[in-house]
Hints:
Blueprint: E1 8-12, H1 17-28, E2 32-37, H2 40-50, E3 53-56, H3 62-76, E4 81-84, H4 99-127, E5 130-135, H5 147-167, E6 172-179, H6 185-194, H7 198-206, H8 217-228, E7 239-242
Helix pairs in contact: 1-2, 1-8, 3-4, 4-5
The structure holds NADPH dihydro-nicotinamide-adenine-dinucleotide phosphate.
NADPH dihydro-nicotinamide-adenine-dinucleotide phosphate binds near residues 59, 108, 112 and 185.
Amino acid sequence: MTRFQGKTAVVTGGAKGIGAATAKRLAAEGATVIVADFDEAAAQRTAEEIGGHAVRCDVTKLEDVEAAVEAAKSHGGSVDVLVTCAGIIRDNLLFKMSDDDWSAVIDTHLKGTFYAVRAVQQHMVEQKSGKIVLISSTSALGNRGQTNYSAAKAGLQGMTKTFAIELGPFGVNVNCVAPGFIATDMTRQTAERVGVPFEQFMEHVAKDVPLRRVGQPDDVAATIAFLCSDDASYVSGQVIYVAGGPKT
Ligand code: NDP
């Protein structure tokens, strides 16, 4: 498929996990991809693999985000797609959650996404087209130990709808993908924190998933690619759960 031939995409958090799978999928379908990530070495590896461009970018820093968007302009000539995958967790029960745990998670997800969408909208509004996908989570519905993360992920769903309303008149589609448990470094970190081997942890989680398996980054990337494509040209302001079924 060549759904993204001639298109330029910025993927924040594109070095690893869901972001890397998305960068690969978009590139495989023809996009020039800017892999924007905190982790510069990993971003470089992903970019080399897909023939894209790596940019060191901390999404909480306005100048970094603007530089990533400028890189899209200079390498591809346009900014057609933005996928905001940069994310962190700092889990703790409410009574143990520090101010730093709160701020780091809120800033990375909410401020980081705000900066990225604000930076691309100018180009997309001018060219009267664009596709933006934000990444929420099933944790938006509430999850023990994730006051900060569930607040951020619920906030992203509200931002999606607001962006869709404001940018729709300019031909820009904005949607949100909310994954369940996906096998990445992020969930490996959770398994390590509770002291359970990752394979065993995933088997345990899969028992409660209607499809009886955990998700893979490619499962999420395929849905993101659909939402970034013209196949989804009349879909905007939606939250698509990619979670193997409803919570049981
Ligand atoms: P990973 O940890 O595998 O990848 C996230 C990437 O984002 C890492 O490369 C990370 O760099 C980078 N990153 C973190 N902070 C910043 C920042 N401030 N600026 C730029 N890049 C940053 O996570 P996943 O692939 O699992 O997660 C991707 C997104 O999907 C996140 O938003 C996450 O919340 C969401 N999600 C994940 C789920 C899962 O089960 N895995 C479920 C639901 C949602 P570094 O490693 O250096 O921190």
